[in-house]
């Protein structure tokens, strides 16, 4: 990915704040505060780029809390402990 947009940064910050969940699927559905994220294409791109992942294992099609990966933490410049 190239430079991240404000929307991408906002989704990463929401993920760091434990406000995001996603479905386990090839094209995950992402929600913030229980509502569908306004830009599913961007959300899926962040997942596919390896910045966001499911925090717990779930069956395909089921929802899991989302967390930042090490790459997501790095792109935000967060302390690893703060993102956990």
Give a brief outline of the structure.
Helices cover 37% and strands 21% of the residues.
Structure commentary:
The chain is about 35% helix and about 20% strand. It has a five-stranded antiparallel β-sheet. It contains four helices and five strands. The chain is globular. By secondary structure, it is of the alpha+beta class. It has helices spanning about 5-15, 40-50, 70-75, 80-84; strands at about 20-25, 30, 35, 50-55, 65-70. The termini are far apart. It has one domain (about 5-75).
Strand order of the largest sheet: 3-2-1-5-4
Rg, nearest Å = 12 Å
The profile of the biggest β sheet is:
5 strands, antiparallel
SSE class: alpha+beta
Write down how many β-strands occur, each being a DSSP E stretch of 2 or more residues.
5
Rounded mean pLDDT is: 90
Number of helices: 4
Order of helices and strands: HEEEHEEHH
Low-confidence stretches: none
Strand composition percent: 15-25%
- DSSP helix fraction: 25-40%
Give the termini distance in whole angstroms. Answer: 23 Å
- Structural domain tally: 1
The geometry reads as globular
Protein traits:
84 residues; 5-stranded antiparallel β-sheet; 4 helices; alpha+beta
Helix-strand layout with pairing:
Blueprint: H1 6-16, E1 20-23, E2 30-32, E3 35-36, H2 40-48, E4 52-54, E5 63-68, H3 70-76, H4 80-83
Antiparallel strand pairs: 1-2, 1-5, 2-3, 4-5
